[in-house]
Specification:
alpha+beta, 60s Ribosomal Protein L30, Chain: A, CofE-like fold, 9 helices, 33% helix, globular
Length: 327
């Protein structure tokens, strides 16, 4: 078993769910947690009883305790659920799983596609994985990671007789940041978002925007001991029982930002290209004299990348009218 112990900052979740921060600190249960990754999981194949395999590995390490959170990688969940599909062309598999293209860029390995997939997740390659799978196959994400987490939670709770939480994790990049990290794509029995709004900070000021992505933080912490090539797809996080709930909860879907609040639904180059297309259309349908320049400004404000869209609209309008000074 590999593991780590991580000190936590002071503070915690909403008062209605638990004791005060002072009481928890006095009890010594909110300033430290441990993460351990049991060995012995082995290769998972379609149809395997993942709950039994994980439970056996945990039993060899002393089992589970009340309030533990079990983190399982989406890769082994997908394998057990038979999400290994034949695909000589990974690109076609990515297309099949794509709901919306956010951005594409040339890369040394071909074209990198950032897309929204069927789960509403925005990630590279729609989450389609070609690593650690047989030649000529790819691995898709679970059909319903929240349902997978709920089933695994029920089986582990019955086996060990304790209240536990389950997080299904996957690896993704992040806007504005280099590097990859694990995040939660399936959750059962864990507070996915801890809403601290309405509380106060250490200086007595009201918190108005602080909502902590607890499930994502747990997933990221677990990856530090699981690793990418260590053959340890499961981790147990102990010491965060205050975030483990009696019921399954709403799952990881609450972590997906809806379109109404997503300020970056497309890449900058895509915004520019859309502006060019719309500008050409405006020029062709309305004519130079009939287009209100302020209308392009209005439309641009509705775009995620207003400047790029505005510039693209102007370029497209100039092309459409044949007037290099117009737009």
């Amino acid at each position: 078993m590999t593991g780590t112990s991580v000190p936590l900052p002071d503070g915690g979740a909403r008062a209605e769910r638990q004791a005060s921060p002072e009481a928890r600190r006095a009890a010594g249960d909110d300033t430290r947690f441990t993460v351990v990754a049991p060995s012995g999981i082995g290769e998972i194949s379609p149809g395997d009883d993942l709950a039994r395999i994980v439970g056996d590995a945990l039993d060899r390490e002393g089992g589970l305790r009340e309030g533990d959170v079990v983190v399982v990688t989406s890769k082994v969940v997908s394998k057990a659920e038979g999400r290994v599909v034949a695909a000589t062309d990974r690109e076609q598999a990515i297309t099949d799983e794509t709901v919306r293209v956010v951005a594409t860029r040339p890369s040394p390995g071909g074209v990198l596609r950032i897309v929204e997939n069927r789960l509403g997740l925005v990630m590279a390659a729609a989450g389609v994985d070609a690593s650690n799978t047989p030649e000529g196959t790819v691995l898709l994400l679970p059909v319903d990671p929240d349902a997978s987490a709920r089933a695994l939670r029920a089986a582990l709770a019955e086996r060990f007789g304790v209240r536990v939480g389950v997080v299904v994790s996957d690896t993704a990049g992040r806007a504005w940041r280099e590097g990859l990290t694990d995040l939660a794509i399936g959750v059962a029995g864990v507070v996915a978002l801890d809403d601290l709004r309405g509380g106060v900070d250490s200086h007595g000021r009201e918190l108005s925007v602080t909502v902590t992505a607890v499930a994502d933080q747990i997933a990221a912490a677990s990856e530090l001991v699981r690793g990418k090539a260590a053959g340890r797809p499961v981790a147990v996080v102990r010491g965060l029982g205050r975030f483990v709930t009696d019921d399954d909860g709403p799952g990881a879907r609450v972590l997906v930002r809806d379109s109404g609040t997503d300020m970056f639904r497309e890449g900058s180059a895509e915004a520019y290209a859309r502006g060019v297309t719309d500008g050409r259309g405006a020029a062709g349908s309305a004519g130079a004299a009939a287009v209100d320049p302020g209308e392009a400004e209005h439309v641009a404000r509705e775009a995620g990348y207003a400047d790029g869209y505005r510039d693209g609209f102007a370029e497209g309008f100039r092309e459409g009218t044949g007037n290099p000074q117009q737009g």
